[in-house]
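As a warm-up, study this chain.
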Amino acid sequence: MNDSSVTGPAYFLLQFNELYNSWLADSANNERIEMDYHIQTITKDDKFRILKFLRRFFFRDEPLNHSIELIPESEDSTCLELEEYCSMSSLENNLSLMAVTTSGAIVGVILNGKMDPPSDEEPEYITTCENPKFKKILRLLNYVDRNVNRDGKFRGLNILEVRIISVDSNWRGKGIAKALVEKSLEIGKEKGFHIARADCSSFFSGKLCARLGFEQIYELNYTDYVDEEGNPVFSPAFPHTAIVTYVKKL
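Now compare it with the structure written out below.
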Protein backbone atom coordinates (compact mmCIF):
# COMPACT_ATOMS: atom_id res chain seq x y z
CA MET A 1 0.00 0.00 0.00
CA ASN A 2 1.12 3.58 -0.67
CA ASP A 3 0.17 6.93 0.86
CA SER A 4 -3.22 6.71 -0.81
CA SER A 5 -3.95 3.71 1.40
CA VAL A 6 -4.61 5.90 4.41
CA THR A 7 -7.47 8.00 3.09
CA GLY A 8 -10.30 5.72 4.11
CA PRO A 9 -11.94 5.04 7.45
CA ALA A 10 -10.35 3.07 10.24
CA TYR A 11 -11.91 1.07 13.02
CA PHE A 12 -11.73 2.31 16.59
CA LEU A 13 -9.65 -0.52 17.98
CA LEU A 14 -9.68 -0.55 21.74
CA GLN A 15 -8.43 -3.51 23.70
CA PHE A 16 -11.77 -4.51 25.21
CA ASN A 17 -10.43 -5.76 28.54
CA GLU A 18 -8.86 -2.34 29.16
CA LEU A 19 -12.07 -0.56 28.38
CA TYR A 20 -14.18 -2.88 30.49
CA ASN A 21 -11.93 -2.30 33.48
CA SER A 22 -11.87 1.43 32.75
CA TRP A 23 -15.66 1.44 32.52
CA LEU A 24 -15.99 -0.18 35.93
CA ALA A 25 -13.40 2.13 37.46
CA ASP A 26 -15.05 5.24 36.06
CA SER A 27 -18.45 4.09 37.28
CA ALA A 28 -17.10 4.06 40.83
CA ASN A 29 -15.03 7.22 40.46
CA ASN A 30 -15.56 9.79 37.73
CA GLU A 31 -12.25 11.50 38.34
CA ARG A 32 -9.12 10.31 36.55
CA ILE A 33 -6.85 8.21 38.73
CA GLU A 34 -3.55 10.03 38.78
CA MET A 35 -0.69 7.78 37.74
CA ASP A 36 2.98 8.31 37.14
CA TYR A 37 2.76 8.99 33.43
CA HIS A 38 2.39 11.84 30.98
CA ILE A 39 0.85 12.15 27.52
CA GLN A 40 2.95 13.24 24.55
CA THR A 41 2.64 13.53 20.78
CA ILE A 42 3.74 10.58 18.65
CA THR A 43 6.26 11.40 15.91
CA LYS A 44 7.65 9.35 13.02
CA ASP A 45 10.68 8.56 15.18
CA ASP A 46 8.39 6.58 17.49
CA LYS A 47 7.18 4.24 14.73
CA PHE A 48 8.97 1.05 15.74
CA ARG A 49 8.24 1.51 19.45
CA ILE A 50 4.56 2.06 18.70
CA LEU A 51 4.29 -0.97 16.42
CA LYS A 52 6.09 -3.14 18.97
CA PHE A 53 3.59 -1.98 21.58
CA LEU A 54 0.59 -2.69 19.35
CA ARG A 55 1.89 -6.16 18.44
CA ARG A 56 2.06 -6.99 22.12
CA PHE A 57 -1.12 -5.42 23.43
CA PHE A 58 -3.53 -5.01 20.56
CA PHE A 59 -3.22 -6.65 17.14
CA ARG A 60 -4.19 -10.17 18.11
CA ASP A 61 -7.09 -9.40 20.48
CA GLU A 62 -9.16 -6.70 18.75
CA PRO A 63 -12.64 -8.23 18.12
CA LEU A 64 -12.57 -8.15 14.30
CA ASN A 65 -8.95 -9.29 14.12
CA HIS A 66 -9.66 -12.10 16.57
CA SER A 67 -12.86 -13.13 14.78
CA ILE A 68 -11.09 -13.90 11.50
CA GLU A 69 -7.76 -14.89 13.07
CA LEU A 70 -5.97 -12.08 11.28
CA ILE A 71 -2.77 -12.66 13.25
CA PRO A 72 -1.24 -16.17 13.15
CA GLU A 73 -0.73 -17.92 16.46
CA SER A 74 3.08 -17.92 16.52
CA GLU A 75 4.50 -15.55 19.14
CA ASP A 76 6.37 -13.27 16.75
CA SER A 77 3.76 -13.17 13.97
CA THR A 78 2.01 -10.01 12.81
CA CYS A 79 0.02 -8.57 9.91
CA LEU A 80 2.30 -6.39 7.82
CA GLU A 81 -0.63 -4.75 6.04
CA LEU A 82 -2.15 -3.74 9.38
CA GLU A 83 1.20 -2.42 10.57
CA GLU A 84 1.60 -0.33 7.43
CA TYR A 85 -1.97 0.88 7.71
CA CYS A 86 -1.31 2.04 11.27
CA SER A 87 2.06 3.64 10.64
CA MET A 88 1.23 5.42 7.39
CA SER A 89 -2.15 6.71 8.49
CA SER A 90 -1.46 7.98 11.98
CA LEU A 91 2.18 8.27 13.02
CA GLU A 92 3.31 11.33 11.09
CA ASN A 93 0.42 13.79 11.48
CA ASN A 94 1.04 15.12 15.02
CA LEU A 95 -2.48 14.04 15.99
CA SER A 96 -1.64 10.75 17.69
CA LEU A 97 -0.60 10.42 21.31
CA MET A 98 1.05 8.02 23.73
CA ALA A 99 1.06 7.71 27.51
CA VAL A 100 4.63 7.37 28.75
CA THR A 101 5.96 6.63 32.24
CA THR A 102 8.75 8.64 33.85
CA SER A 103 11.10 5.79 32.93
CA GLY A 104 10.18 6.17 29.25
CA ALA A 105 7.98 3.08 28.85
CA ILE A 106 4.90 3.38 26.64
CA VAL A 107 1.77 2.31 28.54
CA GLY A 108 -0.95 3.57 26.20
CA VAL A 109 -1.41 4.63 22.58
CA ILE A 110 -4.11 6.45 20.62
CA LEU A 111 -3.80 6.80 16.85
CA ASN A 112 -5.84 9.59 15.26
CA GLY A 113 -6.12 11.03 11.78
CA LYS A 114 -7.98 13.39 9.49
CA MET A 115 -10.85 11.81 7.57
CA ASP A 116 -11.04 12.34 3.85
CA PRO A 117 -14.36 12.44 1.93
CA PRO A 118 -15.71 8.96 1.09
CA SER A 119 -15.50 7.65 -2.45
CA ASP A 120 -18.32 6.03 -4.41
CA GLU A 121 -15.83 3.57 -5.85
CA GLU A 122 -13.81 1.03 -3.88
CA PRO A 123 -10.60 2.86 -2.94
CA GLU A 124 -7.32 1.71 -4.41
CA TYR A 125 -5.89 0.85 -0.99
CA ILE A 126 -8.59 -1.84 -0.66
CA THR A 127 -8.37 -3.14 -4.22
CA THR A 128 -4.59 -3.54 -3.99
CA CYS A 129 -4.49 -5.06 -0.49
CA GLU A 130 -2.82 -8.46 -0.82
CA ASN A 131 -3.97 -9.85 2.53
CA PRO A 132 -7.47 -11.35 1.99
CA LYS A 133 -8.33 -11.28 5.69
CA PHE A 134 -7.31 -7.66 6.20
CA LYS A 135 -9.13 -6.75 2.99
CA LYS A 136 -12.34 -8.02 4.63
CA ILE A 137 -11.85 -5.53 7.47
CA LEU A 138 -11.07 -2.69 5.07
CA ARG A 139 -14.22 -3.43 3.07
CA LEU A 140 -16.36 -3.46 6.20
CA LEU A 141 -14.97 -0.08 7.24
CA ASN A 142 -15.57 1.35 3.79
CA TYR A 143 -19.14 0.01 3.85
CA VAL A 144 -19.75 1.70 7.19
CA ASP A 145 -18.21 4.95 5.96
CA ARG A 146 -20.40 5.07 2.87
CA ASN A 147 -23.53 4.49 4.95
CA VAL A 148 -22.58 7.09 7.55
CA ASN A 149 -22.05 9.67 4.80
CA ARG A 150 -24.96 8.60 2.60
CA ASP A 151 -27.00 11.77 3.20
CA GLY A 152 -23.99 14.10 2.93
CA LYS A 153 -24.52 15.32 6.49
CA PHE A 154 -20.80 15.73 7.15
CA ARG A 155 -19.81 17.09 3.75
CA GLY A 156 -17.34 19.96 4.03
CA LEU A 157 -16.54 19.35 7.70
CA ASN A 158 -13.06 18.81 9.08
CA ILE A 159 -13.31 15.46 10.89
CA LEU A 160 -10.87 14.02 13.41
CA GLU A 161 -10.98 10.22 13.38
CA VAL A 162 -10.16 8.27 16.52
CA ARG A 163 -8.64 5.13 15.05
CA ILE A 164 -6.80 2.92 17.50
CA ILE A 165 -6.47 2.80 21.27
CA SER A 166 -4.47 0.25 23.24
CA VAL A 167 -3.28 0.16 26.84
CA ASP A 168 -0.59 -1.93 28.50
CA SER A 169 -2.27 -4.85 30.31
CA ASN A 170 -0.53 -3.87 33.55
CA TRP A 171 -1.99 -0.34 33.38
CA ARG A 172 -5.59 -1.09 32.50
CA GLY A 173 -8.45 0.22 34.58
CA LYS A 174 -6.52 3.39 35.46
CA GLY A 175 -8.31 5.80 33.12
CA ILE A 176 -5.54 5.93 30.51
CA ALA A 177 -7.88 5.30 27.56
CA LYS A 178 -10.20 8.05 28.78
CA ALA A 179 -7.29 10.47 29.24
CA LEU A 180 -5.96 9.75 25.74
CA VAL A 181 -9.35 10.38 24.13
CA GLU A 182 -9.93 13.58 26.09
CA LYS A 183 -6.50 14.95 25.13
CA SER A 184 -7.16 14.03 21.49
CA LEU A 185 -10.43 15.96 21.54
CA GLU A 186 -8.64 18.95 23.03
CA ILE A 187 -5.98 18.88 20.31
CA GLY A 188 -8.60 18.38 17.61
CA LYS A 189 -10.47 21.46 18.73
CA GLU A 190 -7.24 23.49 18.84
CA LYS A 191 -6.41 22.43 15.28
CA GLY A 192 -9.78 23.47 13.89
CA PHE A 193 -11.55 20.12 13.56
CA HIS A 194 -15.34 20.37 13.63
CA ILE A 195 -16.20 16.78 14.56
CA ALA A 196 -14.52 13.80 16.20
CA ARG A 197 -15.61 10.39 14.91
CA ALA A 198 -15.04 6.83 16.08
CA ASP A 199 -16.14 3.60 14.41
CA CYS A 200 -16.34 1.23 17.38
CA SER A 201 -15.84 -2.43 16.57
CA SER A 202 -15.92 -3.27 20.28
CA PHE A 203 -18.93 -3.03 22.61
CA PHE A 204 -16.79 -1.48 25.33
CA SER A 205 -15.20 1.13 23.10
CA GLY A 206 -18.72 2.29 22.34
CA LYS A 207 -19.40 2.58 26.05
CA LEU A 208 -16.33 4.80 26.43
CA CYS A 209 -17.48 7.08 23.62
CA ALA A 210 -20.95 7.35 25.13
CA ARG A 211 -19.51 8.29 28.52
CA LEU A 212 -17.39 10.99 26.92
CA GLY A 213 -20.39 12.65 25.28
CA PHE A 214 -20.23 11.14 21.79
CA GLU A 215 -23.52 10.67 19.91
CA GLN A 216 -24.33 7.33 18.27
CA ILE A 217 -25.29 7.93 14.62
CA TYR A 218 -24.98 4.51 12.95
CA GLU A 219 -25.03 0.84 13.92
CA LEU A 220 -24.41 -2.29 11.83
CA ASN A 221 -25.02 -5.68 13.42
CA TYR A 222 -22.36 -8.17 12.44
CA THR A 223 -25.07 -10.72 11.66
CA ASP A 224 -26.40 -8.36 8.96
CA TYR A 225 -23.06 -7.98 7.17
CA VAL A 226 -22.91 -11.15 5.09
CA ASP A 227 -20.96 -12.69 2.21
CA GLU A 228 -22.30 -13.87 -1.16
CA GLU A 229 -23.66 -17.03 0.46
CA GLY A 230 -25.50 -15.13 3.20
CA ASN A 231 -23.08 -16.01 6.00
CA PRO A 232 -21.81 -13.34 8.42
CA VAL A 233 -18.32 -12.19 7.45
CA PHE A 234 -17.44 -11.49 11.10
CA SER A 235 -18.65 -13.29 14.22
CA PRO A 236 -16.86 -11.70 17.19
CA ALA A 237 -17.43 -13.10 20.65
CA PHE A 238 -20.25 -11.62 22.73
CA PRO A 239 -20.80 -8.79 23.66
CA HIS A 240 -19.24 -7.47 20.44
CA THR A 241 -22.36 -7.71 18.27
CA ALA A 242 -22.13 -4.58 16.10
CA ILE A 243 -19.88 -1.89 14.74
CA VAL A 244 -21.20 1.49 15.89
CA THR A 245 -20.26 4.97 14.72
CA TYR A 246 -20.07 7.81 17.25
CA VAL A 247 -19.46 11.52 16.68
CA LYS A 248 -18.83 14.49 18.95
CA LYS A 249 -18.86 18.18 18.08
CA LEU A 250 -15.64 19.97 18.97
